[in-house]
Amino acid sequence: MRQLALALGERPAPTLGNFVPGRNQAALAAVRTLVDGLDGQVYLWGAAGSGRTHLLRAALDAARERGARCAWLAAPAPDWGAAHAARFVAADDIDRLGAQDQIRLFDLVNELRAAGALIAAGASSPAGLALREDLRTRLGAGLVFQLHALSDDEKTAALAARAAALGLRLGEGVLPYLLTHLRRDMATQIAVLDALDRYSLEQKRAVTLPLVREALADLEREERCARRLQARRSPPL
């Protein structure tokens, strides 16, 4: 249960390895190439939940592991000093940047085109961004990919493949139950599946729907007890 509680209570760190691409294979391949070469520019766009921030965070960590000096930029308070000193920059939610920050991003894009790598993301394609024309043009000059959120069928297939890789046999209805009752991002779903694998081995029981319900019910009781204990310890206002 401690393992399951950890998986549910802490969002797994995003990596290129735990990003489930679905229809976004080309985008993932481009991001890997960007990290490997530490050179170039990739712009990602799509609706919330499509994996934009996941890929940016994962790319930044992967570039850092390669020894690159990295910087994270995001509205409303981007750290421009760190960005101008970096070789690899990830800029998220650029559609939320104000007028002065748009000018600074334009300058940064030009710097990184000469020596460095930029991965940026926003809610719209470059042409649809409410930004300066010169900045939109610069962002559209690199590789541009629309990210598509996974369908339920794609999520189910990915989780089934993960279970097969673990040698884990799932009872009927387990995967739909996990998708319905837990956070739907794939990093969390895969972490919970891994935790259920460990839990079933500890309990020497198959991963059936009753076991999953039991585990989640136990976790809910533990969380309620923890909240009550915290409330007792908190001083009155």
Describe the structure concisely for a colleague:
The chain is 55% helix and 11% strand. It is built from ten helices and five strands. Helix 1 packs antiparallel against helix 9 (186-203).
Structure description:
- The protein has 237 residues and is α/β, with parallel strands linked by helices.
- It has helices at residues 2-9, 25-37, 52-65, 80-84, 99-114, 133-140, 152-166, 174-181, 186-203, 209-233; strands spanning 40-45, 70-74, 88-92, 117-122, 143-146.
- It folds into two domains: 25-146, Rossmann fold (3-Layer(aba) Sandwich), CATH 3.40.50.300; 150-233, Helicase, Ruva Protein, domain 3, CATH 1.10.8.
- It has ten helices and five strands.
- Helix 4 (80-84) links the parallel strand 2 and strand 3.
- Helix 1 runs antiparallel to helix 9 and helix 2 packs parallel to helix 3.
- It is elongated, with a radius of gyration of 21 Å.
CATH fold-level topology of the largest domain: Rossmann fold
The helix-and-strand class reads: alpha/beta
Low-confidence region ranges? none
The biggest beta sheet, please?
Answer: 5 strands, parallel
What is the CATH C level class of the largest domain, in words? Alpha Beta
Into which percentage range does the β-strand content fall?
5-15%
Number of domains: 2
Shape category? elongated
SSE ordering: HHEHEHEHEHEHHHH
Radius of gyration: 21 Å
End-to-end CA span: 34 Å
The helical percent reads 40-55%
- For the residues shown, what is the average pLDDT? 89
Just name the CATH architecture of the largest domain. Answer: 3-Layer(aba) Sandwich
| Beta strand count | 5
Tally of alpha and pi helices: 10
Spatially, the strands of the biggest sheet line up as: 2-3-4-1-5
Annotated CATH homologous superfamily of the largest domain: P-loop containing nucleotide triphosphate hydrolases
